[in-house]
Amino acid sequence: MKIAVLALQGGVSEHINHLKSLGCEAVEVRKAEELDGLDGLILPGGESTTVGKLLKETGILEKLRKKILNGFPVWGTCAGMILLAKKIENDESRHLQTMDITVRRNAYGGQINSFLVEQKIEQICSEPIPLVFIRAPYITKVESNVQIICKINNNIVAARQGNMLATSFHPELTNNLEMHKYFLNMCRENFSDLYELS
Ligand code: GLN
């Protein structure tokens, strides 16, 4: 399988390494043309405002948005979650707007409020896994078509809507591969029946 990581800004190499250790061909995407021929894409952590701006400038935004709405599997971690959200509670900017979630940026406060917890996520793993939060957003509202995957202190930190996965935390910064395995299984599914192909 060929899986890409959006490489405009942020934590790219850690995702690439995880994908490689699971036997994928892992590539970086910086141009709209590079979105062709992929089985899935990870939108990594970083600064969503910066990445959102670069998405527009490179022409990736419109092409990727269309692809996602046609069933292309994507996973947004942290800033990536913000890029996917239809609504951002405390920010005027809007990016891909494909996922029916409302998010709150920097929901836990600043860098100083970054933290690590261990949690078992029913759908993902049978043992607790480490979850790293860095200036993380969380989801404050989901529409009924969105499945909640994980909550911490009653805040939603992982959710899935068909071909879209969003996590507040950074599995690429731990040695655990379970979330990446889960996403690769998503990439093996076919979502074309979810959407009217255009
Ligand atoms: N605070 C960042 C934002 O709002 C996200 C932080 C991260 O991706 N680690 O875009």
UniProtKB/TrEMBL annotation:
Pathway: Cofactor biosynthesis; pyridoxal 5'-phosphate biosynthesis
Residues bound to L-glutamine: 46-48, 105, 134-135
Reactions that this protein is recorded to catalyse: aldehydo-D-ribose 5-phosphate + D-glyceraldehyde 3-phosphate + L-glutamine = pyridoxal 5'-phosphate + L-glutamate + phosphate + 3 H2O + H(+); L-glutamine + H2O = L-glutamate + NH4(+)
EC annotation from Swiss-Prot or TrEMBL: 4.3.3.6, 3.5.1.2
Active site per database record: 78 (nucleophile), 170 (charge relay system), 172 (charge relay system)
Keywords linked to the UniProt accession: Glutamine amidotransferase, Hydrolase, Lyase, Pyridoxal phosphate
Pfam families according to UniProt: SNO
Domain of life: Bacteria
Cited function: Catalyzes the hydrolysis of glutamine to glutamate and ammonia as part of the biosynthesis of pyridoxal 5'-phosphate. The resulting ammonia molecule is channeled to the active site of PdxS.
Complex and partners: In the presence of PdxS, forms a dodecamer of heterodimers. Only shows activity in the heterodimer.
Family: Belongs to the glutaminase PdxT/SNO family.
Name recorded for this polypeptide: Pyridoxal 5'-phosphate synthase subunit PdxT
Gene: pdxT
